[in-house]
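Question:
Now give any protein.
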Amino acid sequence: MSFLELSLKLKGFPLKKAEEELKRLKSLSPEEFLSRQNEKKWEIVRYHLENNSFYKNKLNNKLPSSWQEIPVLTKSDFQISPDKLISDTFDNSELYTGYTSGSSGHPFRYAKDKFSHAMTWALIKDRYKNFGLDLNSRQARFYGIPLEKKEYYIEKTKDFLSNRKRFPVFDLSDEVLKKYLEIFRHSSFEYVYGYTNSIVLFARYLNRKNISLKKECPSLKVCICTSENCSEEDKMIIEKAFKIPVINEYGTSEVDLIAFEDLSGKWLLSNENVFIEILDEDGNNLTSGGEGRIVLTALHNKAMPFIRYEIGDRAVIEPDENEIRIVKLLGGINDELILPSGKRSSSITFYFITRSILEKIDSLKEFVIRQTEKDTFVFEIVSETDISDSQAEQIRKKMDEYLEPGLKAEFKRVEKIERTKAGKMKQFYSYVN
């Protein structure tokens, strides 16, 4: 048993029960599975209608007669006190809670009941088996990490117990990447996992040096890219450098794992846990293919009603006899930072800089950060109140700590933030070449 599985068990998450349920679902025929999925989506609607005052208001205290009549929820619907969102049948001790801003700049707190969270891990465990991995496989993790002492050591302890080595993405200069390469040479990693943008930077470094990562670390089996969409061009760069398959993982922390690529590049959807819809601009389901909005229903989460929840991403689909077939995901690509010293860093760094400060602003709706010069960052914030001088100063100090001293931060309260062509609002934009 891996540390993660033991930890889930000790905290009361019923992983074994979830794995048995997943096994049962996978044993159903296609017709039986579709019937069960339809039952589950209506079951979760009825549950929240009966037990969740927030959702009861959304439905005007009445069960719709058709699925299309159920309102589509967005991130802004959940930007209220979590206490108002959680079902009456749960207290905090029975929940898994988290905070999300992701790359979209819409921060809010979310909750899952323990069985729902266990189903997520059961599904991840199942998908990892396809690549010869389990939850204890040695991981090289290209990720951020809080630099505040307490949180830093908590994450380092979790890394140690979870059999993973973290490669922080705040500084990705050649000097740092050289040190990372040396760690690979003396480690038995089974897979690389992390932010696409950061992994691509490491791959470009290896390609410039004409180095094969698989040769330096023969135990490597696969690279899994998450958080940001890994394009075909990115895959080619990584595969050239790593000499191992590159797989996209796609999900949202507040809902679930949504899809996982197989070795052929086909998206395997998380239909066991999530009912996935692709809607056109008028809210109609795309049945004949095309590009549309991704809308999700968490089938097991009784704690918070993520029902017909629009996550802000878009997808291109092709018609399929039994299910949606995603052929391309749009959005989710973040820029990198280039600083005055020449240092490069992942834009995800700003999540660690801002999360503990901006989440305390009750009226915060969304925000975006624009790098207008190498030393200048403009924070555009949609909020009922201005950011305070003390909050602005805290952010500047964290920029000194996470990035480098001497950077300028400007704060502007705006009425609206424009979206990308894909319909998504990125959290960070760089206008520096």
Remarks:
- The CA atoms of residues 247 and 265 lie 7 Å apart.
- The mean pLDDT is 89.
- The chain has three domains: 3-122+253-330, 132-244, 336-430.
- Residues 336-430 form a domain with the GMP Synthetase; Chain A, domain 3 fold (CATH 3.30.300).
